[in-house]
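User: Please predict structures.

Assistant: First:
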Amino acid sequence: MAESPSAAGAPEAVSAVGAAAERVAVPATVRPAGAARAVTVREYGTRYLRITVRYHGDARFSWQRVPGPAHDRPQTPPPPAAGAALRRVDAALAEAGSGAGRGARLALGEWDAASEGGGVLYRVPGAVSVARLLPSGDDTAHRLSVGALADAGRTLRRLHDVPWEFGEPRPHRGVGRLLAWLSGSADASTEATGENAPDGARLRALARERLGSRLWTRLADWAESAQSPPGRGGAVLLHGAPSTGWLVPSPAGDHTVLLTGEEVTGGDPALDLGWVLGELHELRSAATRGLGAAGQGPPVDYPAAARALLAGYLRTEAATAGAGADLLTEDATAALPPGTARAATLRLAVHMRDFASFVGWHEDLRHYADLLAETLDADGAPTLRW
């Protein structure tokens, strides 16, 4: 599949469609001493979102995310009470410092409809996310990525320790897009916004054929279940769309931030953890099958990345770069939120749907449909085999 920044939640490509990673350091040409204004370092995006990364001097960057013509709803901040909870979690992360057991700090979005271009602004320590660093094959980039994923796992666990007690949670946006696509209702509703409805419909027809009625029904049932609130007391504070594209490490490796705010809701913790695992499963599978940039790029130890994420989430001593290959014992897998494998499978389906709708058709989508069918047929189990 051709290069594609992620169509929705993640700022950058995290699947086989990602391009080769860019260098971590900001080039000297965009580091003018005493620059009086911000310098644009990168611009990219899809019909869903456009992202502009600017350098502000002294290792300070901003990421502005502006809705594209196919964005499905206004970008709105989380409810005030949920926002306060996010700030409390970030304060606890700050107190943990930068040593062992740290987590990724929460870069909370700043909403300013009056600013040029609107959208949401995030202040971060780097210009490049793990989505670009991890597939590069560079040893330093891999170390930064694995450490950042361990940090992200710890942060997601801290978020999930907070019960959702902030009013009616917003529907999960990624699952919502998938449900609209499965039903066919996305085609009519997105023509007015400029979304690529014909390619989304083409993918749906292909997926129905490759999955067959049994697996198509299973996918729809899993999506419906994921969008339903957990039982009494089961909903927790969710990031809503965590990914390697939202995860930005400092080039020095001393801390990481997780862009947070636009997708925040309450629900099953499996959705957050599975969202990142689904990306990593897709990357590994694409590399194995020779699909897109992941299949054409250098070898990457994706299992180490997934094990670091899970170790961070499980709060084990192995949550460090190069976590041991024996991390995912049967007991450890059982300790993950029930439904994590299903959520990871849904993430794979959402990324396919978003690519077709917000970027366009690519022949590799045929192979991704086969991958989805295999993962569904195995009840999502391959997403936990690291």
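Second:
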Amino acid sequence: MDARFTAEQDEIRRTLRELLHKRCGPEELRAAVDTPAGHDPALWTALAEQLGLPGLALPEGYGGAGCSVTELALACEETGRALAPSPLLATAVLTAPLLLALGTDAQRADLLPRIASGALTAALAVPGPALATALGLTGHDPSGEWGEWAGGGRAGGVQARQADGGWRLYGQVDQVLDGHSARLLVVAAHTGGFARSRVLLFLVRGDAAGLTRVRQTALDATRAQARLQLRHVEAGLLGRGGDDVLAALARLGDTAAACLAAEAVGAAGRVLERTVEYVGQREQFGRPIGSFQAVKHRLADVYVQVQAARSAAYYAGWATAQGERVGGLALAQALQALRGAAAEGIQSHGGIGVTWEHDVHLYFKRAAGDELLFGPVHRLRAHAADLAHVFEEAG
């Protein structure tokens, strides 16, 4: 393994950081999250047209750049540094890989070029607060099946039934990332009238009749979420129905975890930089507080955690592209590092660290919000240990 970045990877990071520095500063960030979309459409257009970010990991035959998960993870590190609100995670990380893996030739040819160009945004809708379970990051059902999280029948979730030569969906989905603004929804639904029936994925237009989408108030305002209500909504089956959807979601989970780990590392590194800058300027007893040994030691501990998490995230980005499942562990380490860096940043900033006007609280909310969506850390680690049979007795 060559741990050095290629010239192309360095260029992706440099150009993306420069663009976000110009277009997604603190004022632009706050203005974007207050819009109905929850992000700046002009910035998303720039990311697509100037950098090709939505299609970074899509094949060139579909208008993408033909890069791997590694490059996508490096891009996520830069968007994490800026806490940039955009459809990148929902569209390029969570949805596009499913369309590529499961879609028919016609579906790929229709949808993926539009995603790569930035014209089509998409979102993955998983019933209930079970996204991490559906992606195989925090365990599975005690029965050994991975589909019970989707509900079904009287258990809730989303039901799919065939009608008039097509499919109709009925149910509700909460906590859909960018679900209020995405033009395409990939919805997980049961195809029978009971909770253990088969789970399939369906394509739903964002303007479909019978679909109600409401943006929800989220802890992390930089990750817009929505509640979807589907009342006999017309849908198209993703793929041909014979694919192993649960296995595809598990493979997606490792890819998503690698990208999320890189994103968290980017945020952790940035909040640490801002904290170090601040303690070098704020004076107490006639000297900068950063000159006190206790402050140095605390920030040194954070630095070690962030660097270790960065190494784990980089390895996960490389290993996932080779088929190795290490994303969950890297995500656990990155989320812990982000939480520690953000908490120390609030502490070191003193009184202004707990004010709405300062940006440091946004990093803490990103850490807490990601743990609610994709963790928590101890469950990520416990599931990784279960997969590796760490605590099973030999014999």
